[in-house]
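Re: your question about Proteasome lid subunit RPN8/RPN11

S., sorry for the slow reply, the queue was backed up all week. Below is exactly what I fed in.
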Amino acid sequence: MIIKLPEKLYQQLLEHVQDEFPNEGCGLVAGVIADEEIEVKEVYTMTNLDASAEHFTMDPKEQFAVVKEVRNKGYDLIGNYHSHPFTPSRPSEEDKRLAYDEEAIYFILSLKDEEPVLKAFSIKEQKKVTQIEIELI
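Result:
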C-alpha cells in the first residue's frame, strides 16, 4: 500500500498545523482508493475543540459538513490527521486507544524537530500499528 500525496496538499496540511502550534492541529483526508494505492485529493482542516498540545477533538458539525462534501465529490474518506507539536510522528497510547475505525488511515505530522515529519499509519484492534508509505507527488 502506498499513499500518493500532492505536494500542494502536504503544504496545506503543514501550514495548518504550524498555525495551530503549540496546540495539535487536526483534520480529515479524502481521496480515491484503488487496489494498493491511495491518492489524496483533499485535506480538510478542522477545529481542535480541545485547544491542547496533547490531544484533539474535532468539531462534529465540521466533520458532518466534510463527510457530506466528500460524498458529493465521489471521494472516499481516507482518514484523519493531527500534529504532534513536541513528540515524534508515531501513534501515542491515546492515539491507539482512540483508533476505533480500523479502515481509517491516521496521518501524524511531528513538529518536534526543525524539519517536520509526516507519517501515516493503519491501527488495528487499537494496538497493532503499521506504517504506510507516503509518496509526495
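The chain has one domain: 2-136. The chain has a mean pLDDT of 95.

Happy to talk it through on Thursday.
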